[in-house]
Amino acid sequence: MGSVRRAGREKIQNLGMGCVEMTKQSGESYRELGIWVFFCAVICIVYSLCGDRIPALYMGKIFGIICCIMLDILSLVVYVTEKVYWMNGITYKEAAEAERGQRKKFAAKTAGIFFICTVLEILYFFYGLQLRTSNLQKDSMITAGLLCAAVLAAQKIRMN
Asked: How far apart are CA 23 and CA 4, in angstroms?
């Protein structure tokens, strides 16, 4: 009976530790990441089925914006759940040992980079509307370049 009380007191004391203890207790999980991947696949399938309803002028540009928004959603999920080990270069052990503020700061910086990428993609969309340009290959290359630049910039962020 005494060990049960002691364990209960330890759990109450650990509540003050915040998410670090919860992360260590709950273990490594990729469930939300799997949900996000499934959501992205559904969005891509729906978009491809609606292709004949979207003018060719907007096709590549809208898909680029969708890709950027999907990355924004992922970065928000990482920020809310503090599962920064989903990001490249961070192990589960490093994430569990880091303080909550460090994880939040890391996730916020990463989200900021992806939000900037989205803003640039939207600006490119409106620029293309003004000039009435329609080139799926060029739009895809610009989107890929923006996304690669965002991912490379996010990889340079360190936890400390």
From this structure: 22
